[in-house]
Automatic annotation (TrEMBL):
It comes from Dyadobacter jiangsuensis. The chain crosses the membrane at residues 78-96. The keyword Membrane applies. GO terms for molecular function: sigma factor antagonist activity. Gene3D superfamilies: 2.60.120.1440, 3.55.50.30. This is FecR family protein. It holds the Pfam family FecR_C. It comes from the Bacteria. Residues 251-319 form the Protein FecR C-terminal domain. Keywords: Membrane, Transmembrane, Transmembrane helix.
Amino acid sequence: MQVTPELIRKYHLGQCSPEEENAVLQWLAGDGTDQVPSYLKGNERKAIQSRIWNALGDGQRHGEDSGKATRNTVCWKWSRIAAGVAMVAGLSWLAYDRLAMRKNAMQIAPIHYQEIRAAFGEKKKFYLPDSSLVYLNAGSHLRFPDHFTDTSRNVQLTGEAFFEISKDPSRPFTIHTQNTETRVLGTVFNLKAYPGELTELVVTEGKVRFGKAQKQVVLTANQMASFDVVSGELSNRNVYAGAYAGWKQNRLVFRDNRLSEIAVILERWYRIDIEIRGPGLERVIFTGTYENPSLQTILHDMSSAMKFTYTQQGKQLIIQ
């Protein structure tokens, strides 16, 4: 029977059959042509060293009548084992040292950042280094590292994005905006954080912690939170999450929005400049849902409902 590293390991653990144990003992009393398995290290090496001593001791007691030749064989055998153990110890230390050097190199490896932008009139879809999926709305940008660390995943958002975060309990995912911080482990949600506007988070799936400093809330599916940087107010309520991420499929949804709010959205979507001149028009409210609409379709409906006229010259739109 051939003595393999697996067989030596079984012998060390006391799991050998009588036949296998006999083969190992014969190997110990052999002529030294085999080599000590290179995997032996640490406590395993010490334990098998003890078993080898015992085996060799037994061999000496049973072979006393065979004279000097047997003693010489045993002594030579142990010299071979000792040399092998010393060699394994050296190789183990070398491997450990190289592993430590590699780990240190990884820890101090510089992190490079990249930024993806969606200009006015466009949207983007892409994956982060951890395979999280991101949809970026018009007029938005996301900054993130080329690789995340072993303990955290951090990105910076300006604008609006829909996230499908890969689950990784050991590395929380944090989105930093100008005024808030959103922290998750693995979930699906929409975050809107355009400068000068309310920061709004709507959760589709999972659990999300949202807020700023000591003022935070934990949200679950079909809940929404808003942060007003002017007043510092953080509020939350129940909503239908599906109504807040329709922009991914080119769906425009207005829910009692003022014309001033709608104008900002239309500027991002259609890359135009809108000027509202009619007195009081900015505060007029409009509700409507559109599937992949043209600008003219929206303007026609709004002008009829809100009683205004408009003129357009190139990228300039005047409402009055």
